Amino acid sequence: MGIRVLLADDQTLFREGLRILLSSHPGIDVIGEAADGEEAVRVAIHQRADVVLMDLRMPVLDGAAAIRRLATAAPGCRVIALTTFDDDDLVFDALRAGALGYLLKDVGSDRLVAAIRAAARGESFLEPSVAAKVVAEFARLSRAAPPPAGAADALSERECEVLRLLARGLTNKEIASQLGLAEGTVKNHVTSILDKLDVGDRTQAALRARELGIA
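RESULT FIELD:
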C-alpha cells in the first residue's frame, strides 16, 4: 500500500493539479481532498491519511489550527505546510502547531515527492529558502537548553559536513550527491548526529548546529 496523501487547499484548480502530479509517482495515493481546515481534519481522520499537504490560509479553520487538531486527534498523521507565503509568523505557527515540513507552492515536483516520503518516515523537511530563518528564529525564541558538553567534539569530520548541509535544508539524497556518498550512508550519519547531539529531529539538529557554530 502506498503513502496515503490528503490535499487540503481552498483552490480547486490547485488541488486538481496536485492530484494529477502525484498520481504519476508510484507509492503515493491521493485518498482525498479538503477545501477548508475543518474538512481537512475530518477527512484525514476518516480516511486515515499518512500525510496531509496543508495550505495555511483557508476558510472555516486555518491551517495552523487544523494542524493542532490533527496532532491531538491523529498523532500518526504527518502534515506538510504547502503555501504561497514564507511569512515568518506563518512559518513558526505551522511548525509550533506540529507541521513536520514547510514548502512553498513553487516547489519542484521531485522535491515535493521527496518531502512526502520523508514525512511518511517521520522526518522533517524544510524548504531551503525558509530553513535559515527558522533556525535563526528558533534560536532566538526557544532559548533551547545548552548543548551537551563536548557535543561538537563528539562529531566526526564527516558528520560535521553532513550536519552543515542538513542545516541548509538539504535532503539525505541531496547530501549524498554533494558528498559523493550512498544515501544509506548519509541516513546512518544523520541518525548518529541526532544521537550525539541529543535531539529528536532534523530541525532541532539544524538549531543545534547553529549553537555549536557548525552551520
